[in-house]
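Holo prediction — manganese (II) ion.
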Amino acid sequence: MKLKTAVLPGDGIGPEISRVGVDVMKAVAKRFGHDFEFDYGLAGAAAIKATGNPFPEETLKLCRDSDAVLFSAVGDPAYDNAPDAKIRPEQGLLAMRKQLGLFANIRPIQTFPGLEDKSPLKAEIVKGADFVCVRELTGGMYFGEKYESDEKAFDTNIYTRPEIERILRVAFRLASRRRKHLTVVDKANVLASSRLWRKVAQEMEKEWPDVVTDYMFVDNASMKLIQEPRFFDVIVTENTFGDILTDEASVISGSMGLLPSSSIGESTPVFEPIHGSWPQAAGLDIANPLAQVLSVAMLLEHFGMAEEGKMVRDAVDASIEQGVVTPDLAADGKSGYGTQEVGRWLSAWILTAGA
Ligand code: IPM
Ligand code: MN
């Protein structure tokens, strides 16, 4: 298969994990005889430094002209403590989402056998947890009207019916292919926007009779997530709630460094870890590349390469089982492996597994 991937390494640990993701894709291409092309683009603080724009026109064009985007992370501490900065790396990520129309962000949460004790939650609670959070990604407070002065500021949590319908369709379809349980998370007891979500979901529920649909307020859902994570199969929620709940849900897996995501919509799909750029670790070769590698698995599966995706997942499982992992996942008393070492091991595994 011919596939053109735009690679956006971004900032902090981004370039290090990006390298591993691309190497793994190259190993898959070699093993399965695919023709994968990679073209690199700037995003985030790296792009601001070079062009003044966190998501330059050239990068947008590169993404539009590609089949897929492999994204890593953006963010730089120089901007975090400067609330008056007019240009911020994160705007690059938001611009990419908006300009590529990536309205659906799919964030699968699972536990990995052997890593249950890495979670701060009790192993018996997290064991077997396996759900997907479908986060709306181009609406709500992130993109609604804003006002900002030194005396007053507001963000508008705006959603229209078509925006709600299209994300719910993604969630219902996904639930019908999984364990057929959809939880719509909102704050309909307080927010008008949530009441519209609930109304639209209650209408659409009738079109999906095989899916059991339930409704949960976001405060309650945040508690249920870590009290009884196995309750969930598919969660669908608006942009801001999805942002917060998926960071919370990452503690179920035990490391932010394990969770991939895909963002799909009107143009080229994007595959990226859910974690940020961890600037403190940049250049230290300690960042966990597995979220990026699992994003590659999602990319391959998105394009119908199920066997290839499975092989990448098997390689990840094997690396965990054999302890070839970065320090965040290393067993007590073990120091762990470097980011690139883990990457080389995964690529070698893919090239030789079962051969
Ligand atoms: C995420 C991130 C982004 C978000 C930031 C970096 C703008 O936290 O992808 O979850 O808030 O959406
Ligand atoms: Mn987030």
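READOUT: Residues 21 and 293 are 5 Å apart (CA to CA).
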